[in-house]
Amino acid sequence: MSYCRQEGKDRIIFVTKEDHETPSNAELVADDPNDPYEEQGLILPNGDINWNCPCLGGMASGPCGSQFKEAFSCFHYSKEEVKGSECIDHFRNMQECMQRYPELYPQENDKDESAAPSDSAALTSESHSTAVTSAVSSDSTSPTDGQTTS
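The structure corresponding to this sequence follows.
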């Protein structure tokens, strides 16, 4: 005798040998985008950020979760030509928060501390945007003394 019972989100089906001998009449149901147990990835079907995505490594929670969410949201929804260039302050706030919790957010470049200034918050918006602009424009080549522009 076959039967089915529901336990929470799971459905348990017991079948007989005879049930296995007949072809299945199961119908596949499209994934429910609102199913909280379904993995959605980083971006939900409606375009929102999935803060529960394991790909974020728990960054959206913890002592700097709100700063991370602000910075990541700003970057994700950025419409600027240099994506995220308007988000400098949000990323700076996130970095400052992370520096207050080095045991939770270890710095990869701790061993290179002598090569870089220890207070990266000293980087101003103006100098950062200049650095971003320089990095973007460094891909294009400008003429040298022996070359002419066309």
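The chain has four helices and two strands.
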